[in-house]
TrEMBL record:
Domain (E3 ubiquitin-protein ligase DCST1-like C-terminal): residue spans on this chain: 219-249
Major localization listed first in the record, in broad terms: membrane
InterPro entries with a match to the protein in the record: CSR-E3_Ligase_Protein (IPR051856), DC_STAMP-like (IPR012858), DCST1_C (IPR058842)
A GO term, aspect molecular function: ligase activity
Annotated compartments: Membrane
Membrane topology label: Multi-pass membrane protein
Species classification: Eukaryota, Metazoa, Chordata, Craniata, Vertebrata
Keyword rRNA-binding: no
Ranges in coiled-coil conformation: none
Natural source organism: Pomatostomus ruficeps
Transmembrane intervals: 39-62, 126-145
GO cellular component: membrane
Entry keyword Transmembrane helix: yes
Name of the molecule in the record: DCST1 ligase
Cross-referenced PANTHER family: DENDRITIC CELL-SPECIFIC TRANSMEMBRANE PROTEIN (PTHR21041), E3 UBIQUITIN-PROTEIN LIGASE DCST1 (PTHR21041:SF17)
Length: 249
């Protein structure tokens, strides 16, 4: 029977605990990357919706100001009355009477068929377009929890392979624990060689300028990232500026 060594505080941040409901640091990086991949789709969707609304407005203005309607109405009545009872009068009534006509004509036309017909997206269509993107963003946030089940599923179907993997990771942790001091010194040395950012320099200047801000602008341990407590100790080197908690010190 093998007893597992407890994790150090600075080693805890690189491990995922399945029982924790909060999103942990290794999972947060992948979740942010997935959300960043959704930003181009969101920008494209906003661009398409804005372009559709702009074109719909332009076409509506064109249709409103360019619409012309014509109305044409004519009326024609022709009546020839031949009076008399003679043979010639009867003959004229039979021949010229056929010319009697009467009609009314009314024509309405417009240029509506030649104008552009705007067909903008309705509110329901906008919702139908945004819902898949919202579901994709929720899936990016919730995918960390199904990913935790991968190791349980692998252990159920491939127990020997998963046992080999766990032993390899444990032996790797032991080797890292053996060289822990050397690895942390190298990491701190790399951080020290990097020039401080403008935000870090500004926070340090505010702390030195106004000591009462130290309660709000608390520093963190260089190794494990624990917030500042009275037990924290600064590095004795004046040019270092590193800050350590009591276990890391």
């Amino acid at each position: 029977k093998r007893t597992l060594l407890p994790l150090l505080r600075q080693e805890t941040s690189s491990f995922i605990f399945p029982c924790h409901l909060a999103v942990q640091r290794p999972e947060l990086k992948h979740m942010v990357l997935e959300l960043l991949r959704c930003i181009p789709l969101l920008l494209f969707l906003l661009f398409v919706c804005g372009l559709d609304h702009f074109i719909f407005s332009i076409l509506s203005i064109i249709q409103h100001h360019s619409f012309v309607q014509y109305s044409y109405q004519t009326s024609h009545h022709l009546t020839v009355n031949v009076m008399g009872t003679s043979l010639m009068a009867q003959l004229l009534r039979n021949t010229i009477g056929a010319l009697n006509t009467s009609f009314d004509n009314q024509v309405e036309t417009s240029n509506l068929a030649c104008l552009p017909q705007p067909s903008g997206m309705t509110r329901q269509q906008y919702l139908n377009t945004c819902l898949p993107l919202g579901a994709l963003a929720l899936l990016c946030l919730a995918q960390v929890y199904p990913f935790r089940l991968r190791r349980a599923i692998a252990a159920f179907y491939f127990p020997k392979r998963e046992k080999t993997r766990v032993l390899f990771l444990y032996n790797k942790l032991l080797r890292q624990r053996k060289n822990f001091l050397h690895l942390q010194r190298g990491r701190i040395a790399r951080q020290a060689r990097q020039s401080p950012t403008l935000g870090t320099w500004l926070l340090e200047w505010c702390r030195r300028r106004w000591p009462w801000l130290r309660r709000c602008l608390r520093r963190r341990c260089t190794l494990c990232g624990m917030p500042e407590t009275p037990q924290h100790r600064p590095c004795p080197s004046p040019d270092c500026g590193a800050f350590y908690c009591e276990p890391c010190w």
